[in-house]
Amino acid sequence: MKIPAPLLLGLGPALGALALRALVTTLRVRREEAAVAPLWAARAPVIYAVWHGRILLLPRLYGRRGSHVLASRSRDGELVARWMTRFGLVPVRGSSTRGGGEALRQLARALREGGEVVVVPDGPTGPREVLKSGVIALARLSGAPIVPTAVGASREWRLRSWDEFRIPKPFARCVVRFGEPIRIPTGADRATLEATRKDVEAALQSLTWQVDAEARA
Q1: How far apart are CA 172 and CA 185, in angstroms?
Q2: Residue 183 φ then ψ, to 5°
Q3: What angle do CA 128, 133, 138 make, to 5 degrees?
Q4: What is the CA radius of gyration of the chain?
Q5: Cα(14)–Cα(180) distance, rounded to whole angstroms?
Q6: What domains lie within the chain, and their CATH numbers?
Q7: Which terminus of the chain is more solvent-facing, meaning fewer CB atoms within 10 Å of its CB: N or C?
Q8: The pTM is what?
Q9: Which H helix or E strand runs over 69?
Q10: What 8-state DSSP symbol labels residue 143?
Q11: How far lies 179's CA from each of 57, 60, 169, in Å?
Q12: What span, in angstroms and rounded, lies between the C-alpha atoms of 153 and 167?
C-alpha cells in the first residue's frame, strides 16, 4: 500500500528520529575529536566532509552544533530536511541539478558568519567514496578548512544502494574520528585545486580505513 505523501512527510521524520535515538543508546561510541577541538574552541567555521554511506550517526551525536547540511529539493530531500531539523541541523535546499548555485552561496555565507557545514562529497548519486569538487569550491569560496570525518562500526547492515549505506547493529562498537583540517591555498589555480581535491579524498579514505579497523579490533 502506498503511503499518502502528507502522512509520510508528517510521520516519517519523527519515526526515523525516534529510531536513531533508540539505536544510539545501545552503541558504544568512541569519539576522536583532538584534530578539530582547536577549531571548536576558537568558534571557527568548519566544513566536515563525510562519505554519504556513513553519515547516519552524526546528526544524533553532533546535531546540537547546528551545522548546515545540503538537502535536495525533491520529496525525498524534504523528508531528509525534516528529519535533520529534529536533531538541530539546518537544511539548505539544493542539489547539483536544482538550485545548486544558490545553495552553495548559502553554505558559504553560513561559513563566513562562523557557522559549520556538513558535506557528503560523493553524493547525491556517487560514485561511492569518490570526492567531487563541490567541497573544494565551497572551501575556496568561504576560506573555511575541510575536516575529514569518518564513522566505523564493529557490526553493521549495508543497504543495497549505490553508497552501501551503513546502519550499525545494536550494541556495536563505533569509532568517530575527525582528521586534520585541510585548507585551500590563497590564490590556488586549477592544478592546485585538483591536487587539494586528491589530498582530501586520500585523507578521507585513510581515516575511513582507520575507524573500520579500530571498531572491529
Answers
A1: 40
A2: -110, 150
A3: 120
A4: 17
A5: 35
A6: 5-216 (3.40.1130.10)
A7: N
A8: 0.92
A9: strand 68-71
A10: -
A11: 17, 20, 25
A12: 9
Q: For Cα atoms 48, 82, 19, give the angle at the middle one, nearest 5 degrees.
A: 85
> What whole-number distance in Å separates Cα of residue 52 and Cα of residue 123?
6
What's the rounded mean pLDDT across residues 59-73? Answer: 91
The three cell numbers locating residue 159:
543497504
**Could you give the C-alpha distances from 208 to 49, 148, 192, 203, in angstroms and in order?**
11, 9, 24, 9
* Cα dihedral across residues 164, 68, 64, 116: positive or negative: positive
> What's at 82, amino acid-wise?
R
Residue 41, judged by CB atoms within 10 A of its CB (0-12, 13-18, 19+), counts as exposed
Alpha helices in the chain (DSSP H): 5-26, 37-41, 58-62, 75-85, 100-112, 134-142, 190-216
**Other Cβ atoms closer than 10 A to 190:** 7
| pLDDT tens for each residue of 122-165 | 988 889 999 999 999 999 999 999 999 999 999 999 999 999 99
Three-state DSSP at 88 gives coil
**Measured CA distances, 124 to 75, 98, 147, 210 (Å):** 14, 12, 19, 24
Please answer whether residues 26 and 92 qualify as being in contact, where contact means their C-beta atoms are separated by less than 8 angstroms: no
Give phi and psi for 131, each to the nearest 5.
-80, 120
Length of the chain: 217
- Decide: 73 and 52 in contact? Cβ < 8 Å: no
